[in-house]
Design a protein that fits this description.
Helix content: under 10%
Distance between the termini: 37 Å
Shape: globular
CATH topology of the largest domain: Immunoglobulin-like
Mean pLDDT: 91
Structural class: mainly beta
Bound molecules: CU-O-CU linkage, copper (II) ion
Number of domains: 3
Number of strands: 33
CATH class of the largest domain: Mainly Beta
Number of helices: 6
Length: about 550
């Protein structure tokens, strides 16, 4: 890449400015999690006329619920040809859908014909096969940046590969970013489901265009259930509702807009924040509920937005599970912070709110409405206090600690505004190579001003703690100076996770047992713009014999 035009897309704030004590432009919406929505953007090309949300009548569309995927038939298991297992076929295609009654239909690319796509319902221990069919057009409708790794001019513009986020799957079915395929092709993936009940999600993972494909609509839910979950008597059926949050920029004509830099051939921008929030693909929907308990399965499927959710009447929500399943005990909260890629399993009891209309807000912005029916109903479901044993992994079980930085590289190095994992780019040799069935501690040293949600494929892990550090001393004097005590995870983070907020200016420690399968996987930031521009690294689980 020539550095001349790269220079133009420098960030406004550079490390040199920072050191020189120059004015630091503060982000527009620095949140308490430290995530700066809209921090340091390079020059952005003028946007077209966008939808005026203020002018739309809110709460005229019912909240859509994704349909449950129906199996196509049975097929021989790849591990035992004599055994036949459920087989699903999911087309990845263009469709239109209305985000609001008064907005012209929007073009999406997704699974089936909805965002989220059809929900795949499975049971723990029961394997399935899914054929993911690429039926997309051959030209992308969002701006591909050919300077990004894996999206060079010699690569087909439209490519896809599906990753099942949170699943323990063999490498060949994990959706490795370079395993993409073009329109007209299909892949059959094998999901063993050898793991606890949890809400997983499938989404695109094609190298260098993942942010565009997911923004276009390529995401869906996948549930794993088990007999333990069944025994809890949680609200189920019509009382269990998925809520998938995706923010988008939508033009006045109803079409998706993905902003670009001023450089026609290098359109990438470091973050995407939509001005509208879609829930299950709708803008400002409502949901009619009974005055009783509901179970909400929440996913932040946004490219980069963190949400700070409250119910406007001040009532509590109860966490019963996190990314990888049920917590040890339920945790009451009035406010939720959810990062891209994270899931929350929640119980909300509307019993004392018959007849009310309750807003779900993100900060002060309303995003949907619950309409509670007037008449009392019987509710035999439970909100468990103690849920299950989640053994905390002792630090002494780790055979190795890796210290890995999350860094932002600026023009001093002649590079664009990229974020790197441990200072390395995608194409550099593998450096994280844990041995199968061993446990490691990863210290994620976030030296940037942003929170980065870090996700590892294949595994579930626990967070040990977060500890603030002096990033300047770390970066420029190679000195590790902690500036405070280690802070334990929040109570709702005490269960099994697969995506964790690495907060700015802190070391976030996770403990991971690398069980499952040997082979090549990835770990990355789940802010998709970062992931697409080098904030993703391959890692390899080594079979013990090769270690
Ligand atoms: Cu949610 Cu690598 O992905
Ligand atoms: Cu994943
Ligand atoms: Cu990031």
């Amino acid at each position: 890449m020539a550095s001349s035009h790269l220079f133009l897309r420098r960030t406004i704030i550079t490390r040199r400015d920072f050191l020189a004590g120059a004015a630091v432009v503060k982000s527009l919406a620095a949140s308490e999690s430290g995530h700066h929505q809209m921090a340091h953007m390079p020059p952005v090309a003028t946007a077209p006329k966008l939808l005026n949300v203020e002018k739309l009548t809110p709460f005229v569309d019912p909240l859509p619920l994704p349909r449950i995927a129906q199996r196509t038939g049975m097929m021989a298991s790849p591990t035992n040809r004599k055994k036949h297992v459920p087989f699903y076929r999911v087309p990845i295609q263009e469709f239109v859908s209305q985000v609001h009654r008064d907005v012209p239909a929007t073009r999406f690319w997704g699974y089936g014909n909805s965002i989220p796509g059809p929900t795949i319902e499975t049971r723990s221990g029961e394997e399935i096969l899914v054929e993911w069919q690429n039926k997309l057009p051959s030209k992308h409708f969002l701006p591909v940046d050919h300077h990004l790794m894996g999206a060079e001019k010699d690569k087909p513009e439209v490519r896809t590969v599906v990753h099942l986020h949170g699943a323990k799957v063999p490498p060949a079915s994990d959706g490795y970013p370079e395993d993409w395929y073009v329109p007209g092709q299909s892949k059959v993936y094998h999901y063993p489901n050898q793991q606890d009940a949890a809400l997983l999600w499938y989404h695109d993972h094609a190298m260098g265009i993942n942010r565009l494909n997911i923004c276009a609509g390529m995401l869906g839910l996948y549930t794993i259930r088990d007999s333990f979950e069944d025994s809890l008597n949680l609200p189920k059926g019509e009382f269990e509702i998925p809520l998938v949050l995706t923010d988008r920029m939508i033009r006045a004509d109803g079409q998706l807009y993905y902003p670009v830099s001023q450089l026609a051939d290098a359109p990438w921008l470091p973050e995407y924040f939509g001005d509208v929030v879609l829930i299950n693909g709708k803008l400002l929907p409502y949901l009619e509920v009974q005055p009783r308990k509901y179970r909400f399965r929440l996913l932040n499927g946004s490219n980069g937005r963190f949400y700070f959710l409250t119910l406007a009447n001040g009532q509590s929500l109860h966490h019963i599970g996190s990314d990888q399943g049920l917590l040890a005990r339920s945790v009451e909260a009035q406010r939720l912070t959810i990062a891209p890629g994270e899931r929350m399993d929640l119980i909300v009891d509307f019993a004392d709110h018959a007849g009310e209309e309750i807003l779900l807000n993100d900060n002060a912005v309303r995003i949907m409405q619950f309409r509670v029916a007037k008449n009392k109903v019987a509710d035999a479901s439970s909100l468990p206090g103690q849920i299950r044993a989640v053994l905390r992994m002792p630090e002494s079980s780790a055979i190795r600690t890796r210290t890995l930085t999350l860094e932002e590289v600026d023009y001093l190095t002649g590079e664009p505004d990229v974020h790197l994992l441990d200072g390395k780019r995608w194409h550099e040799p593998i450096s994280e190579n844990p041995v199968l069935d061993t446990t490691e501690i990863w210290e994620l040293m976030n030296l940037t001003d942003d929170a980065h949600p870090i996700h590892l494929h294949l595994v579930r892990f626990q967070i040990l703690d977060r500890r603030p550090l002096n990033t300047g001393a770390y970066l420029y004097q190679k000195k590790l100076l902690y500036t405070g005590e280690a802070v334990p995870p929040e109570p709702h983070e005490m269960g099994w996770k697969d995506t964790i907020r690495a907060t700015p200016g802190a070391c976030t420690r996770i403990i991971v047992n690398f069980s499952g399968y040997p082979g090549r996987y990835v770990w990355h930031c789940h802010i998709l713009e970062h992931e697409d521009n080098e904030m993703m690294r391959p890692y390899e689980v080594l079979a013990p014999a090769n270690a």
